[in-house]
């Protein structure tokens, strides 16, 4: 049995996807995530280092447009540099926001918003 300290509880976002194959291709090929588990038509799990995101198949086009998740940590500046170099189309500037977090945003093909941030002193 794994001790609780070795496997702490964590939050994992579960975002809507209009097309699981399109989500898979974007997160794998554009953002460098690995696909975890068996391929299914209605569910997807992707992981990159400690970042894990799940997706469920939705027919409602409005849901991804109002869904988001926040990814925080010291790896964020390197991710922005990598995503910029990869030419990710819907990538915002990496800037300090009024709430004193340095952030950038990525919108996936269906409109889900990924917010990446770190404290300015972590940069």
TrEMBL record:
Membrane spanning residue stretches: none
InterPro entries to which the protein is assigned, alphabetical: Bleomycin-R, Glyas_Bleomycin-R_OHBP_Dase, Glyas_Fos-R_dOase_dom
Protein origin, superkingdom: Bacteria
Keyword line: Antibiotic resistance
Organism: Mesorhizobium shangrilense
SUPFAM superfamilies: Glyoxalase/Bleomycin resistance protein/Dihydroxybiphenyl dioxygenase
Ranges for domain Glyoxalase/fosfomycin resistance/dioxygenase: 19-116
Protein name: VOC family protein
Pfam families xrefs: Glyoxalase (PF00903)
Lineage: Bacteria, Pseudomonadati, Pseudomonadota, Alphaproteobacteria, Hyphomicrobiales
């Amino acid at each position: 049995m794994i001790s609780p300290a070795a496997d702490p509880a964590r939050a994992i976002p579960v975002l809507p996807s209009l097309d699981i194959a399109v989500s898979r291709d974007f997160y794998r090929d554009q953002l460098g995530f690995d696909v975890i588990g068996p391929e299914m038509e209605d569910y997807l799990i992707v992981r990159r280092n400690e970042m894990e995101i799940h997706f469920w198949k939705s027919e409602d086009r409005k849901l991804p447009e109002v869904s988001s998740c926040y990814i925080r940590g010291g790896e964020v500046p390197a991710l922005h540099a990598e995503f910029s170099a990869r030419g990710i189309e819907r990538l915002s500037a990496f800037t300090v926001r009024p709430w004193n977090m340095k952030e950038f945003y990525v919108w996936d093909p269906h409109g889900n918003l990924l917010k990446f941030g770190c404290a300015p002193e972590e940069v």
